[in-house]
Specification:
By secondary structure, this protein is an alpha/beta fold. It has 50 helices and 23 strands. Strand 15, helix 43 (802-812) and strand 16 (820-822) form a beta-alpha-beta unit.
Amino acid sequence: MCTQEAFQAQRSQLVGLLLSGSLEGFESVLDWLLSRDVLSWEDYEGLSLLGQPLSHLARRLLDTVWKKGAWGCEQLVAAVQEARADSQAPTPGAHWDPHTPHPAQALRRHRPAIVRRLHCCVEGVLDLARAQGFISPYECDEIRLPVLTSSQRARRLLDLATVKANGLAAFLLRHLEGLPVPTALPVEDAAWEKFVSKLRTTVSAQSRFLSTYDGAERLCLEEIYTENVLEVRTEVGAAGSPQTCPATLGLEELFSTRGHLNEDADTVLVVGEAGSGKSTLLQQLHRLWAVGTGFQEFLFVFPFSCRQLQCVAKPLSVRTLLFEHCCWPDVGQQDVFQFLLEHPDRVLLTFDGFDEFRFRFTDRERHCSPTQPTSVQNLLFNLLQGNLLKDARKVLTSRPDAVSASLRRYVRAELSLKGFSEAGIELYLRKRHREPGVADRLLGLLKATSALHGLCRLPVFSWMVSQCHQELLLQGEGSPKTTTGMYLLILRHFLLHAAPPDSAPHGLGPGLLRGGLPTLLHLGRLALWGLGTCCYVFSAQQLRAAHVDREDISLGFLVRAKGLAPGSTAPLEFLHITFQCFFAAFYLVLSADMPPSALRHLFNCPQPGSSLLVRLLPTRCVLGSRCKEGSVEALLREAEPHNLQITAAFLAGLLSREHRGLLAECQASEKALLRRQACARWCLARSLHKHFHSIPAAVPGEAKSMHAMPGFVWLVRSLYEMQEERLAREAVRGLNVGHLKLTFCNVGPAECAALAFVLRHLRWPVALQLDHNSVGDIGVEQLLPCLSVCKALYLRDNNISDRGLCKLIEHALHCEQLQKLALFNNDLTDGCAHSVARLLERRRNFLALRLGNNHITAAGARVLAQGLRANASLQFLGFWGNKVGDQGAQALAEALGDHQSLRWLSLVGNDIGSVGAQALALMLEKNMALEELCLEENRLQDEGVCSLAEGLKRNSSLKVLKLSNNHVTSAGAEALLQALGKNDTILEVWLRGNALSPEEAEQLSRRDPRLLL
């Protein structure tokens, strides 16, 4: 017997059972309950609404049945068990009287068996019922909606027969009595099982290897795959505590419940900059599913490439997309597709590279039919919205700039791919180089050249370092510092690989480059044309049009496109989008027919001395009519902005003094090369000046503040690629901002190097805010050159460890301008305490230190206390969210008793009890400078609060005391009231979230309004 109490106790389990299957299983439970009269017809109609999330319907069903009493609860449990058993074995045939005087009641009483019998022949029954006039054409069309499965159509027909009084129910009973009783599972089960087997084989073949140039080296993904840093992406103001770090996930947690933005959405969005490993992450997901070691909750995984989908010109339906562009079922195509529609929760679709999809997302055109064709972009957009294959999971990868706010509304969770950690770089290189000593030497080189080490945060650079390890190690050449230098190194590697062994010269000299120049220009023209037309997969015809021949292809930068449908031709694509941008920049620098003025389109800069209209309107609006179709200007005008930015940075690097001499040997006219360099320099400087001039005037009494515009980091990267000190100095000449904010700007070590290269030339000190980025320890090292111009440095949420902070402090000791450091939400431990203490001892003008939400314990607090004793300037000290405990609080309190400058102290969430509170109370008796003390989220209780109250009686400086969430009762509050009676200085005492009843809180507030309850 199932009581209502037992039913409620197993509610979560029942919800899980109802959700563990598909919508078909849930509707089978409804059939069973309706046939047993547990549900009324009104109950059933309220629980069979199409489009409602299954989780909502399941909980509504439990609520409805619970109101029916113990018998109803018992029947539901039996129905769930019956439905689960029915999915494993066929149901015995049921018998009914075909001539019963109450046919509608018979349809209801035998509904589960009738649905099963009608399932396989509903189309024929519909045709017969229509022909005999029992249903109208309109009713027939409503039942045959493409979104409905065969079982749902059968139920729709039975529902219609229940309410129609024209003999339809009697007709169905008579007709179905003569149909054969199903004695085995439907035939589509065998068809879909065969299809799953074929799909696994296909996906396994596509995902097993990572292809490199010309297929000469095939890397087994299983052997070299290295986890990237994958974080739940959050924005400022998002739900959750602002003092918590973003959750870090493993690949297996891609569909976890953390960080959900929209519970009703089906799409998981993975964002990351170019080269961060998004495609490889999806490839690993596909491989794990195909070999049966991961993501087995999905029966079907369909991988797609957005760059290939956009090449499809003809209209597509869902069926065409899945079968013709991924994997074709050998038998039972209709049965397999029907099975997919009936079990969408067992389907996963992945779409790689949405930033390479030339169509911008829109939700204006709704398309809900899985069988009707539509344009490829409309099909993709409706899949992402859930209008098609609702409840099927989708994974979409993209660069962040290509994701619009309208698309994010349909995202279930957004994850950010940060690239390799330092440990990840080491692990990857050790997997690639198992020969004795090679990986150790390579890692030693990276640690000695932090600029190159910083580039390797992106897996594409780690791959290039691995490819060029002989050039880096054996020939003893200087390691590249810039992105352009690294790509020129890999270019040399490929040219040497393609050249005959006896004729290959050493180094990327003019001979080697000149010999391969025709090939490089052919590839460059193809790359530029592809960027301008948003084409990233090239057919044989397009290759011929760009004069790319077999010799050009054999160089290795063009490879066979991945993920092709069976039987399709073999178009080619560049190894990576960054290589396409590199070759486009190479063409712009060396092509003889490229006018220097075209570079202004690349940097989106109007010509000097142009009219006011040209300066105010976007370039494409004014210059569009003068650009011939197919010209360089037209291609640059139409290219995607994020690809243009990568191309512009490469062009700046190629035109740098370091590489200009090399390219001049291959240039027919050195004057043309110099003109292009001058144009690029002018465009860069002008673009930065435009950024600076757009900064609003400062608010009276405050420092002028600049929040970086989207293109600022790109412009700084381009300046860094040029490596010209004079240009960097000129670019920031006259910039006078007190605060430069670069939060959520995807700033990694390479961007830090570029920022330091430019910002060190500032004339006035600046507060540099880099919160919520990927700076890391390597990035901290890159920032050191500009530390002398920073008056404050904010590095919240940047995965910085003790090593990075210790290196930062080592330089900060000699930077008198730097007065504030904020490194909360990082990976700091007691290991950094000695360095921080030395900073406090040595720097007499240091004002603010915030180390909240790290891993500092009482041991670290005791060391820091030594530095505080010797310090007389600190005004703000933040230690919230650490683990200093009572002993750490005692050490800090003793050090701060006589401190004359500290105004604000936060020890929120540090597991401080009454012992620590007593020490802080003694500190309050002595300290006459502290104005705000934050002690929320501890365990002070009444004993600790009473101690603090005694300290307040003798304190004359404290204005705010925060004691929320400390298990304080009315006894502790009463002690505070007595202290407030003797203290006129304090303005606020926070007591929210404590053990006080509403009546007690109201009474206390009336007695003294300074108590905030």
